[in-house]
Amino acid sequence: MRKLRKVPKDKKTGIAKKYLSGTKNRSAKAAEIKKTAALYKKGAFIDIKAVQKSRVAQDVTKKQKKTTKRRNKK
């Protein structure tokens, strides 16, 4: 069986760094991920809208600039 490479994890939270990149508050996002994972494991109800809202609130990306429409060359 093929061995898989270990994923780099955040020392403080133990969550993969990939999931915490680009957030305002790393510990809050990690807590939300852990809470959702625990609910999923139990088979309990997960409020997807609340999860989505918290993840969007954590996002740091700047507003996208409006792109101009490309014109076809004649």
What is the H/E order? HHH
* Shape field: extended
N/C terminus separation:
56 Å
Number of helices: 3
Sequence stretches where pLDDT stays below 50 over 5 or more residues? none
The percentage of residues in β strands lies in: under 5%
* Helix vs. strand class: mainly alpha
Main sheet attributes: strand count, strand direction, barrel closure: none
The Cα radius of gyration reads 18 Å
Number of strands: 0
**Helical amount among residues, as a percent range?**
40-55%
Mean pLDDT: 86
Topology (SSEs and partners):
Layout: H1 17-20, H2 26-42, H3 48-58
Describe the structure.
By secondary structure, this protein is mainly α. Helix content is 43%, strand content 0%. It is extended, with a radius of gyration of 18 Å. The mean pLDDT is 86.
Question: Could you list some keywords that capture this structure?
Answer:
74 residues, 43% helix, mainly alpha
What is this structure, in a nutshell?
The chain is built from three helices and no strands.
